[in-house]
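Per-record layout

source: Electrophorus electricus
name: Histidine N-acetyltransferase C-terminal domain-containing protein
length: 329
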Amino acid sequence: MEAQFITKDAGLTFWLARPQDFDEVMAISNGIYGGKDYLPHRYHTWMTEPGRVVIIARRSGKLVALDSGLVVDGGQTVVMEGLRVCMSERGHGVAGVIQQVTDSYVKQVYPSVNTKRLTRGDNPPPEKLSKFTVLAQRAILTLCGEAESFKGFVLGLRAKLDTMEKLNDNKNCLVAVKDSHQLKALLLDPDLSSRLQLPGGAIIQDWQPLKPIESNLEILERRNLTWLANCASDKPTFMSFHTPAYPIPFNGGSLRFNIDMFGANLSLARKALIAHLEQETGEFHKCVLVNIYMPQTIWEGMREFCEGHEGVKQCRNYWSQLFLEQEIP
Ligand SMILES: CC(C)(COP(=O)(O)OP(=O)(O)OC[C@H]1O[C@@H](n2cnc3c(N)ncnc32)[C@H](O)[C@@H]1OP(=O)(O)O)[C@@H](O)C(=O)NCCC(=O)NCCS
């Protein structure tokens, strides 16, 4: 495939990324997110994903940076993902330049886009965030262990839960959201956002924020998610899903398993954790990193629930996901 030139700026040339740029992209990605980078797994899907723009920067022919955006929310929003700059070019504003190029290219190809959204796992000082509106912040609990430890871990969680539930006589239960018809009814309910206190009014799927609107259902269906919601009424106050575990470079090759939770009910969150793990542990191999994204108010309770197992441990202190928005003029 011939490279498609976009523009040049600050001594760099900008191009649309192609499948054959993969090795060069990986060469600048070494060590990103401490080895928990999703891009090695997603790069080739990104090349053909509808609404996706992936831009690379080259200096004297050498690939030095990448940025990407996915147009969502019926063409109104671009969700930025994947930003990275090679080690030797960092700290000189290259990230700023490639972001500007990506913004204007997206605007040129998709003129209806007027908002840019992104999520970040670092903790930038307020002055770095002045150009953004902070829409929400979610807590993340990270666990890790060898695949074979997870069965025992889940059995232990179930035993703890049984004891707790007997004490509290808790009748809250969860059901699977099985088909696209049920999912549509759940997500397009106009009260959903307030009932579940959706972060910034969005469903954040493995760092990707999407408004619960019809045009995004197709994007969510592409992700092959497994959904749960509480069965107390037809107006659930808790919802969760997991993304199928995928390979990451960590520790010479590991799996990353993401569970996103919405609604601040600790009892349901505990049950959801067990249910999601039970459904996926059969797929686990090597070392597995589990990220559980949730409202901040239930993080401590979830941490306590998960502690005390020899093989599966909390492997990162409290950290959070920032959800940011910026207008694109
Ligand atoms: C984060 C990273 C891309 C910054 O690259 P850089 O060229 O050194 O960036 P600079 O320090 O020169 O800052 C340039 C701009 O990028 C912005 N920036 C820095 N980190 C950012 C981030 N995580 N998300 C969005 N923008 C970011 C800065 O705010 C600055 O914007 P401004 O010029 O409009 O003020 C680079 O350190 C990197 O590749 N890190 C590893 C991958 C990573 O953590 N990516 C973040 C994805 S959320």
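summary: The two ends are 33 Å apart (CA to CA). The first helix runs from residue 22 to 27.
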